[in-house]
Design goal:
Layout (H helix, E strand, L loop, with lengths): L2 H4 L10 E3 L3 H10 L5 E4 L10 H8 L5 E5 L3 E5 L27
Parallel strand pairs: 1-2, 2-4
Antiparallel strand pairs: 3-4
Length: 104
Amino acid sequence: MNLEKALNGCSQSDVIVLLAHQPRAAKWALETRPDISLVLSGHTHGGQMFPLTIGAYLMNPFFAGLYKVGESSYVYVTTGTIYYGIPMRLASRSEIVEIILQSH
């Protein structure tokens, strides 16, 4: 991920929403630019099926759901709607997420 190119023109006073497929990229982006307001991520499929859930949980800094990072940043990792490889899910849920952004 070319974070510098993705955030070109964004100042620290802007609200920044970044789309980063992998949660590890979300972690790296926030370590590099803690002024990012929200990172939307996926990739984990919520582990897709047990026991793969354990590995997906351990290998990713953010696994599923909403995380607060620092004082003003958030990461949301969706489990998605589909699968990877084997066409099934076991002990994980599919989801479609609606995120509403509001100004204050």
